Amino acid sequence: MFFHNKKNDPVACPVSVLFEIIQQDLDMGICCDIDFIYKGKRHQTGVWGDDGETRTNVKYYLDKAEFLSVEDLKQAPLPDQTPFFSITEWVTVKECDGCYPRSTPLLEQYYQG
Fold first, then answer.
1. Tell me: the pLDDT tens digits for 61-99?
2. 98 near 34, Cβ under 8 Å?
3. What's the pLDDT score for residue 69?
4. pTM
């Protein structure tokens, strides 16, 4: 018999929540990595810096593109040419900082189990 573990479920949320998570991780000085699905395609975004911290040489990314500021990341075009921060439909987060989305408080509040 198969038991579904709801803690592993993906979570749908507005794209603004991804930026809130990035900012929280920046405030803690740690890197951020979020895997999400938008229009059926998997994407990856986040921030990283030297020595696994976000205190020096900080880079933001969306898929394989890198940016020097969060504002540039927000304007990054997705494959349909929509600026990242402007998408209105919710994205589905599959993983956040190497953990299931529901272990991230900002995502847990959107869980619709």
1. 999 999 999 999 999 999 999 999 999 999 999 999 999
2. no
3. 95
4. 0.91
Torsion of CA 82, 86, 92, 96, to 10 degrees: 110
65 residue type, one letter = A
Reduced 3-state DSSP string for the chain: CCCCCHHHCCEEECHHHHHHHHHHHHHCCECEEEEEEECCEEEEEEEECHHHECCCCCEEEECCEEECCHHHHHHCECCCCCEHHHCCCCEEEEEECCECHHHCHHHHCCCCC
Residue 3 has pLDDT above 70, yes or no: no
| Signed CA dihedral, 96, 102, 103, 108: sign only | positive
Residue type present at position 5 = N
